[in-house]
TrEMBL record:
PANTHER family: 6-PHOSPHO-BETA-GLUCOSIDASE ASCB-RELATED (PTHR10353:SF122), GLYCOSYL HYDROLASE (PTHR10353). This is 6-phospho-beta-glucosidase. Keywords: Glycosidase, Hydrolase. The keyword Hydrolase applies. NCBIfam families: PRK09593.1 (NF007158). GO terms for cellular component: cytosol. It comes from the Bacteria. GO terms for molecular function: beta-glucosidase activity. GO terms for biological process: carbohydrate catabolic process. It comes from Latilactobacillus graminis DSM 20719.
Length: 479
């Protein structure tokens, strides 16, 4: 049996906007996540032409405002992670907690003090912090008054933010990622770029301009981090969904190849290789423009080339199946990135197609393309958990899901892939990014909170808690 590498980073992952709460405490400003209504219609609401980031608390609920109150309970939560044996903990720093509007010149000291304490608590238990600098939570003011990431002014604002946190924490934190699931904007630019129809989300040129600006900002962060300490590991982070052609029809084979280029590889090609790929204009021409229509400079392209990322972090939840030849093919209803239903796969309660072998394929595809270390920083099963009167949650379905994906990861390591670590998503229950629900649970720890925001917020260990504890203690030998 292939062993996991010594020092493998077992842990878990969260995002500030989905668990912290305290949305106006300690001088924090509003983030775009604070303006996203709760509920499964979340994306439908924000994609309406009249959505302009205005909060309407009479009509909607905003579960991100309170999250699971990690802001006040982080010591309790970190202690539970330590009990599981976490070697690392991936979390994000809320930009609007450090720069409430985003365009200030001086950081909010109360916000920094919170992360001082959070990082210290991790290190107290020898848990390695893995920090995402920007995880779907840019300051709301930057979306409202600057139009989101399509505005090049955000490069300077992000650079200032990254400089503050890298300078303050580089001695305590070795592992960083610049943007969460940067390529997700291809399908939903609201989260990563702050773009909705009202400020340009329906124009693909705006999305590519926003990406360019983020690529430049990311390269600046890499440059700053390496200047502080050349041993810092600063990665990109992409949403990866292994893609299959539905059949051997060359039309579908070509469509799958282009889907991979357009979605799975484009952002990684720029951030890892340091330059725009050969297919860039083919991709942009499809949407009616070309690379030279974007606002870019030779200096920016040189910056990208000189400051590629050190590793590739990625999320993996599902695969997608491409069928361009059948107009009546059944769609995979829950897949965030589209595609048709794969008859060989089961699906989660939210319709996400479960595909452990697809993770092994993803790891091989990414490593063969880039030959840089890979870090699976999100993977997990969103499910409706039932808790009994003894506060027990029997989530064998989650254990089965994770076991199969860890086995696939082990097989990829046997294939020769360099895998750094594994941090399952939502290691403690939190607010779902896609649906704004608490009922879509991922964690090893149950949080007593419902979709309406009612509950004690008490934490309870699920069956998967003890299982994952054994996995980590055995370095993946006991599954």
């Amino acid at each position: 049996m292939t062993e996991f590498p010594k020092g493998f980073l077992w842990g878990g992952a969260t995002a500030a906007n989905q668990l912290e709460g305290g949305y106006q405490e300690g001088g924090k400003g509003l983030s775009i996540a604070d303006a996203l209504p709760g509920g499964p219609e979340r994306f439908k609401i924000v994609n309406q032409p009249d959505f302009n980031w205005t909060l309407d608390e009479k009509q909607y609920t905003y579960p991100n405002h309170n999250g699971i109150d990690h802001y006040h309970r982080f010591k309790e939560d970190i202690a539970l992670f330590a009990e599981m044996g976490f070697k690392c903990y991936r979390f994000s720093i809320a930009w609007s907690r450090i720069f409430p509007k985003g365009d200030e010149t001086e950081p909010n000291q109360a916000g920094l003090a919170f992360y001082d304490a959070l990082i210290a608590e991790c290190l107290k238990y020898n848990i390695e912090p893995v920090i995402t600098i920007s995880h779907y939570e840019m300051p709301l003011y930057l979306a409202q008054h600057y139009g989101g990431w399509k505005n090049k002014a955000l490069i300077k604002f992000y650079e200032r933010f990254a400089d503050v946190v890298l300078t303050r924490y580089h001695k305590q934190v070795k592992y960083w990622m610049t943007f969460n699931e940067i390529n997700s904007a291809f399908h939903f630019p609201v989260m990563g770029q702050g773009l909705v129809p009202a400020n340009g989300a329906n124009e693909m040129q705006n999305i590519y301009q926003a990406w360019h600006n983020q690529f430049v900002a990311s390269a600046l962060a890499v440059k700053m981090g390496h200047a502080l300490d050349e041993k810092l590991q600063i990665g990109c982070m992409i949403l990866y969904a292994t893609a299959y052609s539905y059949d051997a029809n060359p039309v579908n084979q070509l469509a799958t190849l282009q889907h991979n280029q357009d979605f799975n590889f484009f952002c990684g090609d720029v951030q890892v290789r340091g330059e725009y790929p050969a297919y860039t204009n083919r991709l942009m021409n499809h949407f009616g423009f070309e690379f030279n229509d974007l606002d870019w400079t030779d200096e920016e392209l040189a910056l990208l080339k000189q400051n590629p990322v050190d590793y590739i972090g990625f999320s993996y939840y599902m695969s997608s199946t491409i069928n361009e030849t059948a107009a009546d093919a059944e769609l995979a209803s829950g897949n965030l990135i589209g595609g048709v239903k794969n008859p060989f796969l089961k699906a989660s309660e939210w319709g996400w197609q479960i595909d452990p072998i697809g993770l092994r394929i993803a790891l091989n595809e990414l490593y063969n393309r880039y030959e840089k270390p890979l870090f699976i920083v999100e993977n997990g099963l969103g499910a409706i958990d039932q808790i009994n009167d003894q506060h027990e949650v029997n989530d064998d379905y989650r254990i089965d899901y994770l076991r199969e994906h860890i086995e696939a990861m082990r097989s990829a390591i046997a294939d020769g892939v360099d895998v750094m670590g594994y941090t399952p998503w939502g290691c403690i229950d939190l607010v779902s990014a896609s649906t704004g629900q608490m009922s879509k649970r991922y964690g090893f720890i149950y949080v007593d909170l419902d979709d309406a925001g009612h509950g004690t917020l008490n934490r309870y260990k699920k069956r998967s808690f003890d299982w994952y504890q054994k996995v980590i203690a055995s370095n993946g030998a006991t599954l």
